[in-house]
Amino acid sequence: MPAAARCWAALPRDILITVFLELGPTEVMLGAEHVCTAWRRVALEEPALWRRIGRWRPLAEEMTKRRVICSDVAEKAMGRVALARAAGQCEAFKGCLDYEDLSYLVQRASSLKDLCIEEFHYKEGTEEL
């Protein structure tokens, strides 16, 4: 007897949040939020999903190493979008930054507790530390 069809869009919000937290921000932004309107709404409106931004998950890190997911420009844009979605609740950020990104991070992440800068690009005309 075939299994009954399930409506994945009807999953309760708390279940979706739990699943999305396991996926991580990159996978939510590039995959899960495009499944349906209900999933996109949770991805856009739930700041808890964006408390840890960057390459924290092994899958995202491995795919980023291979440049399968996105270019540096796209990764920078995704970081800014994730910070906006965090609505001031970002607690951890990991990734590459430049002078402007650091300023944006300071403005948007007042709850930041963990910062891992993998690479920092200085603005022309500034001295390196």
Automatic annotation (TrEMBL):
It comes from the Eukaryota. It comes from Eragrostis curvula. PANTHER family: F-BOX DOMAIN CONTAINING PROTEIN, EXPRESSED, OS08G0193600 PROTEIN. This is F-box domain-containing protein. Residues 5-53 form the F-box domain. InterPro entries: F-box-like_dom_sf, F-box_dom.
